[in-house]
Specification:
The protein has helices at about 35-45, 105-115, and strands at about 10-15, 30-35, 50-55, 70-75, 75-85, 95-100. With about 120 residues, it is α+β, with helices and mostly antiparallel strands. Strand 4 and strand 5 (about 75-85) form a beta hairpin. The model has no long low-confidence stretch (mean pLDDT about 90). Keywords: Digestion, Disulfide bond, Hydrolase, Protease, Serine protease. Its main location: secreted.
């Protein structure tokens, strides 16, 4: 598995709040660009580890409160799990996802789920 599908579009799915803190009644999806590690590290100085990837960063389009735990899908494979981002949603900062291709994360998932 290539870690995070760098520089490719991916789909994030969730129930997070939208504009004006509106909670959607229908599951939402959004196309986001997987950001290169250098971009992620430049935005989130000293907060990014090898177990993380970043995506998005377009004003008005972002994960938000309530999306945590949702999937980030690239080329039909889940490559990430929504983790955290800016306190203000939909600003020009990429969101941070757990990188499920990371060996440490894969081992954790296997140990906890038996899959």
């Amino acid at each position: 598995i290539t870690t995070g599908c760098p520089d490719q579009l991916a789909t994030v799915i969730g129930w997070g709040t939208a504009e004006d803190s509106y909670v959607p009644l229908i599951l939402q999806e959004l196309q986001v660009l997987i950001q290169p590690r250098k971009v992620c590290e430049a935005v989130w100085i000293e907060q990014i580890t090898d177990t993380m990837i970043c995506a998005g960063g377009v004003v008005g389009e972002d994960t938000c409160n309530g999306d945590s735990g949702g999937p980030l899908i690239c080329n039909g494979y889940q490559v990430g799990i929504v983790s955290w981002g800016s306190r203000k949603c939909a600003i020009e900062m990429p969101a941070v996802f757990t990188d499920v291709a990371n060996v440490e994360i894969r081992d954790f998932i296997r140990n906890k789920t038996g899959v």
